[in-house]
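[step 3/7] fold_predict: job queued, chain A
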Amino acid sequence: MSPMRDQVLDDKVSPEYKNIDTVVEDLRSGNAQPEHIANIIYMILSYEVSDEAQIVSFLTLLSSSGLDRKPEVVARCAQGMRRQASCVDQQSLLKIVESRRGEGSYKGGFCDLVGTGGDGHSTYNVSTTASILASSLLLVSKYGNRAASSNSGSADLLQAIKPQPPVITSMTAETLPGLYERSTYAFLFAQAFYSGLRIVAPIRKKMGTKTIFNLLGPLTNPIHGNIEARVVGVAQTNLGLLFAEAMKINGAKKTLVVCGQEQLDEISCAGKTSCWRIIERPNPASDEPKSKEDTDLAINGKDGQPRTLVDIQQFTIEPSDFGLQRHQLSEVSPGKNAEDNAAILMRLLRNELPRDDPVLEFVLLNAAALFAISGICDGDTSDMGHGDSGKVILETGPGGLRWKEGVRRARWAVESGRALASLEAYIAASRAMEENLR
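[step 4/7] structure written:
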């Protein structure tokens, strides 16, 4: 599998230079261009702009202009931010993927499950736990940070695991490929890959208002171009299509953007969830491959038409589509702090929760979605290992995806102990790498 490319940046890697004062004036006059806005984001994170007043003025005007709700601006700014990330060796990542066996339409690539946060519901750490379940069958690259507005962020949860937590700071651009030789799970701690976030964090805190940085997190996984599939949660329904379009611009072809009806940045266990699916389809206007050599023309056919088209499909889902019951959000509230949530996590992974436990089913919903969108549920046979009946649930639901098969696989990850083993392998590998860094 070749890495996805940042399509806009491939065309315009180095936009015409404009300093922050000029771009601020352009924002005031309504003449600011997406590539110039994105370049200021890069300059801020690269310490080329450090004046607090300038940064506040830029972020405030960007928000008041409404440009931070335009797909191309968001996509470009995400690209600008990723330009500042510590670079992971691409060839090493490709070798890791090539060594894996695909299943269904899943090619064995990296997957992520991430949300914008800020939904105000303070539910349990669903996406982090679901990503651990998913790593029992998928190669997971979970991107995250510490809590900004909740009791427990993904980094906080992992560091509270007892008796030994992972060393999340040991995962860097240099060590990440080596970790995947020992583990199918990795947590990419934002601050370990984006040193420039240190200058932005205190400024955002002082401002006390949402800025474009509240949107960029899910779009800036440091190995974005190598992500095969992902589930992205947004905290407002009106952000769903925006995110889908921005991710499409950035080259995503296998993505599910979700927003629970309660304005929840997860798939809701309490009711309906709005979905925007990015899907790659054959282009009916393109000539079909006539030989093996023709299939190597990955982008265009002999007639110059693209082989495939990338569409955005909209639909809604609810727990019954997964074969699960509804639970009120009050039933899936977290503990008082990260330590309480970590205890819940370990009980879940040790299969100590009842099969109909609200938190467990909340996690199953979201893990199932990543399994479904990855394509691993598309096969007609199953051989996950010990405890797998091999009976694939072929039923499809909204969006044409096998949600119930995703739940079957997520339950197997818990009940077989594979998810727990995956977490333990990650913890051991991260701690070993920390020892090597000393």
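[step 5/7] annotate
The beta strands are 110-115, 139-144, 185-189, 227-233, 254-260, 273-282, 308-317.
The longest strand covers residues 273-282.
exit 0
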